[in-house]
Write a structure and sequence with these properties.
This protein is α/β, with parallel strands linked by helices. The chain has 7 helices and 6 strands. The protein is 36% helix and 12% strand. Helix 4 links the parallel strand 2 and strand 3.
Length: 217
């Protein structure tokens, strides 16, 4: 078998990291969330955070607020990943997240719990820092330095559009519909074989219907 392996980042690609972190920062600094612009740079310069404060708030978000278990999924990510998985694409989660020392157990547990809660399908998961090549046919990431490094190593990389990566060259996509079409075309062009559906669901179950999240309203 020759599955097409898609390396999928989480924060800023599948989960709304900016939205979740904004709530934490607003609470910790005693400011209004509206004062923290969503259209921000990679280093959160627009929020007035120096590197030391940013590191401290990242740690607080992960450990005190358990943010990584609570963030909202990015629109269309769950549904598109299920369709890709059912089409035979091997979903490999490739995420940094171990950026807070002495809290790895919390971060790993909350990451897996979040994946289960929002029902993102995946076959395996890698927690990495610099994100070296982990044998994927294509990667999707939002971090400019990760995209550049992976491409420099000869990898196919989709840049998932965010305000802090507008200078990254194509392929750059702003929604999961575009990503899904692009990945399916790559898999077909590469002659990859279709894998069995993700285990754990009877064949007759409508998996897409089972992952629809209720309307908060």
């Amino acid at each position: 078998m020759n599955p097409f392996v898609l390396g999928v980042d989480l924060d800023g690609v599948c989960g709304d990291f900016t939205g979740a972190f904004k709530q934490v920062v607003a609470e910790e600094l005693g400011v209004l969330p509206e004062s923290l612009p969503t259209n921000r740079s990679w280093g959160f310069d627009e929020w007035g955070l120096n590197p030391a404060l940013l590191d401290d708030l990242m740690r607080t978000a992960a450990v005190k607020h358990r943010m990584l278990a609570r963030m909202e999924p990015i629109a269309g990510a769950v549904e598109a990943l299920w369709r890709l998985s059912d089409a035979g694409v091997w979903i490999r989660i490739v995420t940094h997240r171990l950026y807070v020392n002495w809290s790895h157990a919390v971060v790993v547990a909350d990451t897996v719990a979040w994946l289960d809660e929002v029902q993102i399908p995946y076959r395996d998961i890698c927690f990495l820092g610099a994100k070296p090549d982990v044998a994927c046919d294509c990667y999707i990431d939002d971090a400019p330095h990760n995209v550049k490094a992976l491409r420099a190593a000869g990898n196919e990389v989709i840049c998932f559009g965010q305000p802090y990566n507008t200078d990254i060259a194509q392929p750059r996509m702003d929604n999961w519909v575009e990503v899904e079409d692009y990945v399916l075309n790559l898999a077909a062009d590469g002659g990859h074989q279709v894998q069995i559906q993700l285990p754990g669901f009877p064949v007759h179950v409508d998996r897409l219907a089972s992952v629809q999240r209720p309307d908060p309203g």
